[in-house]
Amino acid sequence: MARYWLLKSEPFKYSWDDLNAEGEGTWDGVRNHRAKNNLQAMEVGDQAFFYHSREGLEIVGICEVSEAGLTDPTDETGKWAAVKVVPKTKLPNPVTLKQIKAEPALEDCELVRQSRLSVAEIKPEEWSVIMSLAGVN
DNA sequence: GCCAACGTTGGC
DNA sequence: GCCAACGTTGGC
């Protein structure tokens, strides 16, 4: 069964629009062990929210893992992981961090608990809560 | 192996 | 731009 994730990016480095312009993006440059573990746990077909950090502070779209289990091409030691993603859906209503924090059902998600984690897991029930906030059925 | 100092991330 | 949270480094 597919799992759900949240991918964080600073929009002035790599935004949702950049991903759409490219059609497929490689998620690399992660240098955090917990985030790396999450990357390695991803499988092709898993869905992930695309979150804009520092600017925007909202979930703007949904992408899907198109290649999993890659080695980070930006790292010479070969120790870090990467995946490839393709954009799927732009959210009708972007879900802001403020909304997420105001929602009791989401207070335990990794995004809230560990705000500096760049790749976080989203539980299925949390996924559906966010989807309804986003106006997606 | 502990922990203080330092660097980085990210919300505000 | 500030600072809190977290990760990493390095002295002991």
TrEMBL record:
Cited InterPro entries: 5hmC_binding, EVE_domain, PUA-like_sf, THYN1-like_EVE
Domain EVE: 3-132
Cross-referenced Gene3D superfamilies: ph1033 like domains
Signal peptide as annotated in the record: none
UniProt cross-references to PANTHER family, sorted A to Z: THYMOCYTE NUCLEAR PROTEIN 1 (PTHR14087)
Protein name according to UniProt: EVE domain-containing protein
Species for this entry: Parapontixanthobacter aurantiacus
